[in-house]
From TrEMBL:
Signal sequence interval, chain numbering: 1-20
MF-aspect GO terms: serine-type endopeptidase activity
Protein name (record): MGC68910 protein
UniProt keywords, alphabetically: Disulfide bond, Hydrolase, Protease, Serine protease, Signal
Keyword Transcription regulation: no
Pfam family, one: Trypsin
Keyword Repeat in record: no
Gene behind this protein: MGC68910
GO biological process: proteolysis
PANTHER family: PEPTIDASE S1 DOMAIN-CONTAINING PROTEIN, TRANSMEMBRANE PROTEASE SERINE
Domain Peptidase S1: 44-286
Amino acid sequence: MLGFLSLMLILLHETGSAGAASLSSSEETYALSVCGAPMVSERIVGGTDSKKGEWPWQISLSYKGEPVCGGSLIANSWILTAAHCFDSQNVSQYKVYLGVYRLSLLQNPNTVSRSVKRIIIHPDYQFEGSNGDIALIEMDQPVTFTPYILPACLPPPAALLPAGVKCWVTGWGDIKEGQPLGNPKTLQKATVSLIDWHSCESMYETSLGYKPNVPFILDDMFCAGYKEGKVDACQGDSGGPLVCRVNNTWWQYGIVSWGIGCGQANQPGVYTKVQYYDAWIKQYITSVQINKSASSSAVDMTKLLEQSMNRSVEFLETTNITTNSSGASLELVKALGGGAHNQAWSHLTISLSLMYFCLSHLW
């Protein structure tokens, strides 16, 4: 269990070209009504550079001018990320960059930045590796959707994808432990396989050599990766999305949360289960303002966040998903900015955190 994490992608990287694009009237209407549908088609390969506009919900979160985490756009004023990304309650020290393709080229027509109005940390979060590793960022201004800035869809709360399904993780993190992504810092992507709870728990027990009283993988977590390792998220990718494609729509199932090292055998990446916190998310994001042609109109979140519910029957039939009626509903939250951020914990810190976590559950 172990809090190391600030995961980042272990990927190869290559260079590409960038160019500006604008929205036609029909494209703007499309952008305002559909989540999880990039206007740019993707390459079906893993561990490489992404294409410009391939993952339009991906954002970069900076702290004091330095990129520290990823995240995802889920509404035009809201970002979904990990709680452990925040090391300060001072919102003025954070900035969100959207439409980013290369971190070294933030000054371009497709990228916009927003200051942070509010950070909402889930109250269950205690430390890296604990449950409740989820946070919402409310930006100071809404963004206008473009081919490079679009929200991800959130899946139906009760729809579970089976183990073995291939999903994607994205980010600008280290390409291997201790080796940062080199310039021009192109957004990386990799495919990972969903792993069932028993298999993942068993892998961690084998790797760490003991079976804890409290499971390594808690109810609000799931694993993705490979038993042999090699493809994973790594330091710096924390808070970024894990998305799965169903019916040509991308659904965000996970948030990069924690792991041990990067790409190690029997130590797959661990992700916060977005569906587990569906009610908590919607407690805050009940409506959004969407700017269109210099005007704004109120749009009920069901048109954006609950597209998933409108398509749930087709979604379930297509993927043979099993259902679970428990879907956690969490009511209390606190708006504060504490938490660990993007640091590899020492073995001592991990041990103390593990001890604290186990004792807190026993008490």
